[in-house]
Amino acid sequence: MSINTLIDSLSTQGWYVWDDFLISSDIQEIKHCIPNTLQDARIGHRESLQGNRAIRGDQTVWLEPEMGVPIALYMDKMEEIRQALNYQLFLGLRDFETHFCRYPNGGFYKKHVDNPRGVGRRKITTVLYMNESWKLGDGGELVVFDKKDNHLFKLEPLAGRMIFFMSEEFPHEVLPTEQKRESIAGWFLTEKIL
Ligand code: OGA
Ligand code: MN
């Protein structure tokens, strides 16, 4: 598990699963910095909330380094990765946006592409899982498909694990969770088009 393996995997297969990206105590410390009040997650360009609960059931809060040192350290780590990706893959990644997500029991996120048709700025998606006691039967797995909608794999949302994938290429869904499910999603962004 290293940045070089990440870069190789992203350039050959377009995705990578990095187990133990963070250790348990880092995850706990990040959780302590998360504000108590989250917002219903939004989808789509105009960020309309209408009908969203039929598509996704999570609540989110955008993360800022000011929320605490553990969050600032996570963002520093992602900045290091952004620079390495640019240096080796010439992806022109300019920014990183990231939010904490909490799905209540019964929550899910229907199959979608994070950057359909590649018109948005999202180039690489990251999801860091934070579920310390996840076990088989708890649900909330991430299911990933290829461009042609063939099933690729199903991923357990285990604490410390991070997945990276190209935001334009991989449809994916979150299966209904039987437990509270917590994660931090992030996106490396390309240049703003004016
Ligand atoms: C998303 C998303 C997947 C996950 O936030 O866009 O698809 O496993 N998350 O939480
Ligand atoms: Mn997604």
Describe the structure using short key phrases:
4-stranded antiparallel β-sheet; alpha+beta; binds manganese (II) ion; binds N-oxalylglycine; 3 helices; 7-stranded antiparallel β-sheet; 194 residues; 31% strand
Please explain how this structure is put together:
The protein has 194 residues and is α+β, with helices and mostly antiparallel strands. It is 21% helix and 31% strand. It has three helices and eleven strands; from the N terminus they run αβαββαββββββββ. The chain has helices at residues 3-12, 24-33, 69-89, and strands spanning 15-18, 39-40, 59-62, 93-103, 109-112, 122-129, 142-145, 151-155, 162-166, 172-174, 181-190. The strands form two sheets. Strands 1-9-6-11-4-3-2 form a seven-stranded antiparallel β-sheet, covered by helices on one side. A four-stranded antiparallel β-sheet has the order 5-10-7-8, with no helix packed on it. It is globular, with a radius of gyration of 16 Å. The model has no long low-confidence stretch (mean pLDDT 94). Manganese (II) ion (MN) binds at residues 112, 114, 172. Manganese (II) ion is lined by residues 112, 114, 172.
